[in-house]
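PROTOCOL LOG
Step 1. Enter all chains and additional molecules of the complex.
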Amino acid sequence: MRTIIFLLVKEFKQIFRNKPMLVIIFMLPIIQLLILANAASYEVRNIRFAAIDADQTPYSRELVSKFRASAQFDFIAMYPSEKMGKEAVQQGTVDVVLHIPQNFERDLQKEKKSQLLVTINAINGSAAAVENIYVTSIIKDFNKTVQVALRNAADTAQKPKEVIAIPLFWFNPELDYTTFMVPGILVLLVTMVALFLAGMNIVREKELGTLEQINVTPIKKHEFIIGKLTPFWILGIAELMVGLVIAKIAFDIPMVGHPGLLFLFASVYLLVVLGIGLYISNFTETQQQAMFLAWFFAVIFILMSGLFTPIESMPVWAQVLTEFNPVKYFVEVIRMVMLKGSSLKDITPQLVKLGLYALVINALAVWSYKKVS
Amino acid sequence: MSISLKNIGKSYGAVKALSNISFDVKQGELFGLIGPDGAGKTTLFRILTTLLFPDNGEAKVSGYDIIRDFKDIRSHVGYMPGRFSLYQDLTVEENLNFFATIFGTTIAENYDLIKDIYEHIEPFKDRRAGKLSGGMKQKLALSCALIHKPRVLFLDEPTTGVDPVSRKELWEMLKRLQQKGITILVSTAYMDEASLCDRIALIQDGTILKIDRPQVIIDTFPSKIYNVKADSTYRLLQDLALYPDTHSVYPFGEYSHFTSADPDFKPSDLMRFLQEKQHSGIEVSETPATIEDAFMELSKASELIDN
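Step 2. Run joint prediction.
Step 3. Record the structure below.
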């Protein structure tokens, strides 16, 4: 026990003496949080919009003005010809071009239907999909207005039987993306700090040769590993604390559930991440190798965590893989606790799975750590 | 026996780092492992300090088997690797304290053993280890290796890259430690340090060429050695190699060391030969053999066997 305490003291001394590193550990995540929370969003705004009105009728002008009035669209220009519209998309000066054909109004009135051509720059697929939804909803809205107008003129007896769905967004009523993203980004930051620092730390001792000096001492494997990982466990928890405070102050993210639950979950979660870090350091000789290996896992874990893309939309094999992704569980749980107010009972399945994970990965890591080569 | 090795061998893939190494070191002996870089000295140290398992053979350190009782060995040996391996961002005192603690002891408990060495660096005990001079780092490393009062001390090339004054000091410290009953195994690539050991093993390419007291090795050198000098050293070496009776020739400081294959060799014959080759400032004189001469002779012989 005395040895472990002494190791901890030594480790903390080294961490706090490395001033630039300390700044990196605490400042970078804060900056990341501030940047990512504002930048990482599915919302597509400022869509550059242009139209070609070959009809030049009250209806066509009405349709264009609906786009001009929309908050999502920035009106760029009216083009006299289809060719110019195409060129604008080619050059990337315009994202969406609406082409209203000749006789648009006449067809609508006589045949009750007409066609529109919408060109969307789909270089960024997900943005294009969202743009398509916006365009469709504006046209739908226009349709409604037109229908009402047409019916008024014709048969007022037939009342339209429309079904209107009113969506109610639970736990995030305004569909605020910051509220949705910040808890997830917090997970990302805690993960990075724990995974990279723990992995690098032991490899660094390998590189410096100090590990060899330690290995010829009678120090026990578990003493050394506990002494090495505990500081980063504490740093990870501290990081989460700082992150939560910033989330509250800067973004006013709600904390519906009990923060204690988050820290309980984080403490198990960090064991898993630190175990992975230790495992990486056992199989690498230099910090460079460890860095790349840690990146490999970090990228897969983060992109498959449901933080940016929903797990439900992944292929089945990928969904199975995510069962082994610790980041997924924490992203789930942090959103559940902060936004929904889940209780301990609600997060028990995740907690148990992660606990088992921690047990297995640390057993593997301790087993593969060798004082003798 | 404090250290004993029998047929120790170790390979890294196809490279044979050590083959059939056997020797014994007595209690309280200062034993030197002398050989060039890449001879296998560090591998041997790593095996004896339980950092590496050998492929074959057995060895005991202070009565403990290096494979079966490796945990006991770690409590009873001190190891100073060739590269400075202490924490550069901890101070002198923190480093010493750290190693004392993980060996389950304190600085005060064994202070008498390290006093002579630690005294030199004690004024700088609050300085970070990374900011010490080479010689001071050496003393700190030695203090840390001694803090648990080891029975056997392993020093891997402790004088490589150290200034002459610090080198001399280090050897004096080792002599004093030896008097306290500690067995010391030290390796070096400097042949001139060999004479400071009780016994030495000359090692090359993973095999031991000879084990004996340094004086015996010098005394039993088989042939006479001549110091040869001329104004153009490079041309001299080339021409000496052409001399029909040459057994060996290699540069040795400002001179070239020359041995003849002919037992009735006369220096005057060589002088005449060199004069014919237009050399100026020629000197030829007999000189006593050194460990380096013995090493060159032995390694030449072993190469002949290999080929």
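Step 4. Note key features.
Residues 177-208 of chain A form the longest helix (32 residues).
Chain A has two domains: 2-40+177-368, 47-153.
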